Amino acid sequence: MTTSRPLGAVAVATAITLVLAACGANDQPATQAGSDKAERGGTLRILSDGQTLNYDPAKSSNLAITSLALVHRRLTGWLNKPGEQTKVVPDLADTGKTTDGGKTWTFKLQDGLKFSDGSPITSADVKWGIERSFAPAFSGGLGYHKQLLEGGGDYRGPFEGAELKSIETPDNTTITFHLARPYGDWPWVVSTPAFAPVPKGKGAEPDYGEHPVASGPYQITKYQKGVEAHLTRNTNWSTDKDQVRAGLPDEVVFQLGQDASVISQRLAADSGDDKFAFGSSFVSPAQLAQLSSNPSAKSRVVTSKSGALAYLSLNTTKAPFDNLKVRQAIQYAVDRTSFQIASAGNADLAGAVATTLITEGIEGREKFDLYPTQPAGEPEKAKKLLAEAGFPNGITGLDFLVQQGNNFPEKAQSLQASLAKAGIQATIRTVDGDSYQTETTGEKADYSLTLSSWQPDFPSANSNIQPLFASSEIGNGGYNVSRYRNPEVDKAIEEAQATVDPVEAGKKWAALDKKILGDAPIVPLIYTRNSFLHGSKVANFFIADFPAYPNYLQVGLTK
Amino acid sequence: MRIAVHLASRLASALLVLLLVALATFVVFYLVPADPAQASCGRPCTPQSLALARDFMGFDKPWWQQLPEFLVGIVAGRTFGSGATSITCDAPCFGYSFQQNTDVLTLLGDRLPVTASVAIGAAVLWLLAGIGTGVVAALKRGTAWDRIALATSVFGVSAPVYLVGLLGILLFGFTLDVVPVGGYVAFTTSPVDWAWRLVLPWCVLAFAHAAVYARVTRTQMLDTLGEDYIRTARAKGLTETKVVGKHALRNVLLPVVTIFGVDLGSLLGGAVITERVFGLPGVGSLMIDAAYGRDLPLLLGCTLFAAFLIVLANTLVDLCYGALDPRARLS
User: In terms of CA atoms, which chain A residue is nearest residue B39?
Assistant: First the structure.
């Protein structure tokens, strides 16, 4: 257990602020850098602090716009641009049709698609890829489909000779899914990695991800763990048949196992091959402070407009947070300004104050604020609500569970200090990431409060709300950390999930956003921002409203 | 005969140490609430999919059953899962990393040349620099040379390798642009490139380690130079070079060899920070990844490997004692 050190947090935060302010880092961050036009050709280098790359679609939880999608296409893709909501668009197939209100979905593949080995991509290959993701040997990827497909719960993959009957392939270009219940977001689900084709009968070996058969613009020609992955053109891929990938560079080289600080220094120095490179990991606030004294490097920093929702979870199953008025009091007590400073030194770099569960760039998002307050909080208003709740002398003895790393303890200390101003005394308990995961997603939850963040796996409000607030997600590895249970909300979530029309569904999710926040199981804090740095010859490097990562598929180089 | 018995007893105690390390690693992992199968469960992770992942990896059993299975695997090999997707790990199987899709021994074998290149090159540098500086400081006691050597060694001992590494990259890699800032080229590909890319890591590691050797050498040398047998050697008319090089240095080397054995053993087990800073794909980087990714089989393999090297280094140090000091010989 770690004791809290609020003064230390304030000192660190103040120091970061002074450094950033002195360096002029308070300028508004850009979501796109450079105006040079990206040209076809060249070798794009991606500097990664990870030791490995996972190119097995069954085992991947990659977003549809990052590294995996350079090699593997899926049934649908994402079209994302700064200032616009991210849309589901055709990739291998169209965006699907349903004839029975979302329980059965049919997708039509484009004609003439080919794998990198020259063989045609058929619906049977897509089906094989999905079935393969059910095999215990290939677990680990995004698996929203596993519970949704009829019979999926008991299916163990195609290698034991059985096929999943709820996926039908009446011809080479048609694939039909029978779901256990209506699901309006199925076109989004089929954009997850498991919906990439794997040639039927292949992929039984555990290292398939090191030499997969490609369907995207690139294929892996060399892969050395901890060193590099070398991607070259898949000559059987055609830009005419792909509207989500520009496929501009001739080659893409991932340099693996690089130290994040060194990546930042290399890209700032911008010499040699590093001019044609970008870093795949976030630029930390400390690194941003260093970069701000280098105008060239500063102009090459790209920061997301928005990002994951950082929030304070209140354990609704434990007193005093089983009392709505207490939970509402916390909404006013929290000082989001000091949280921003503790996060990244200032509000611009940390991200805007959050008041909704649905994040930017997602259909249905409505701006509202049920608890309008000063960013620095209103402790007196919180005290008044506490008195009404039967706690006129404040609250003591709260257990504030925090995980180590990523500045979480410092951020928690800033919240602890603001709660104390409203007469709420919390003791911070810092644990490692594994212990945190076990306690927050397990059956037994002793904590009163905890600090979390969440970014949806696909751009639907469903992915913002259901994993965090459906009662089915309490314990058993689920992420309903506030242990919020409301049968009305559960029912409304199911209804919204079953709604096929995105606009109609969006309205239902927006209503749920308000309904849940009315119960105040969490305190939305900020929409966190991510910053990335690239070399001077990298073009079309942008971060759209969702997700808060650069779109690898559109990046090109200039000469 | 006596030597054979001694070696057998050393071997038995080494095996016991390795067994205890394996046991401790298993117990530690089961005491902390880490579930290696969780990392391979996917999202959303249902209890059903978690149970399947645990079953496939063999983590569904309690640790006292897993440990014997692990030990048996070393001599008989192991198979995970069944049917077309089963994974075979041939003997000697020191575990299988499901995250890297490779058996642990192969992973260690792939990474060892990098770590050995870093460690041995740096060791040569720090021995030369450390012992040389220590001898000079002792012989020039109280002079400016002595004070400079002491001050430098204090900095070397105190400064974290991470900081020295980053400063080195900043100064020599970016500002002066005289050495590459990272990456690794195999010796067999290009010996010149291999050495050129390792110059900075060698210097950084040598700087940190040489400081200790300089201080130990200086202290030991000063003590030894005051011994009666040194006075006798001088009285016999031996040259100062012979007095220092032949008589004093031999005595000084005893503690140096002890530290060197442990240092080199530890470093071969993974120059964790140096490899990370310089982006070198060695055992240290592998170990960090295993720890972050809750890759228990890989972490266990790395830990056992590091323990093996330290045990081996200690055994070699014992044998070196005999060569350096006749009093330590068995017969």
Answer: A140
